[in-house]
Hints:
The chain has helices at residues 12-24, 29-35, 42-54, 75-90, 95-105, 112-126, 130-135, and strands spanning 58-63, 66-71, 145-151, 154-160. By secondary structure, the chain is α+β, with helices and mostly antiparallel strands. A hairpin with a 2-residue loop joins strand 1 (58-63) and strand 2. It is elongated and about 50 Å long.
Amino acid sequence: MTNAAETPALSRRERQVMDILHRRGGATVAEIMEDLPDPPTYSAVRSVLRILSEKALIKHKEDGPRYIYYPAEPTESARDDMLAHVVRTYFAGSPEQAVTALLRMSDVDIEDAEVKRLRDTIRRARHPLYYARLLLPLASPRLAIHVLRARGGRRVSAFRTQRPEA
């Protein structure tokens, strides 16, 4: 994850383009223009993309005669960074206050089944080897997988060792 302090400041238009790329997973200049409110010219969008590329926030690949732009950082990682920043900045670092605010924002009543799913999700997420239990069964028996999850300033590792050659 990127430290929020290391993330370059973005203009309003740069933020809008990044939001579009994260939402779509990747887009051409024309697709970005479709999603932008009050879209600027094609050249202006290309300039914003060039700046984002110089800031190492996006990458591109060729698709025939056009380029497809996509975020350099996976959306899940960016989401985690942004959420951590919001919790630190607006909720004094308290996940409880953040969740309470989210629940207050909701216009619908939460059903008992949803509350149970939330509790189960929280319980699993708090377990240090939660991700290891998910990933290890999917791994090849010959592959060593190192799952590192930052937790409270310490790192927790789970290993699946290679089987000896037969």
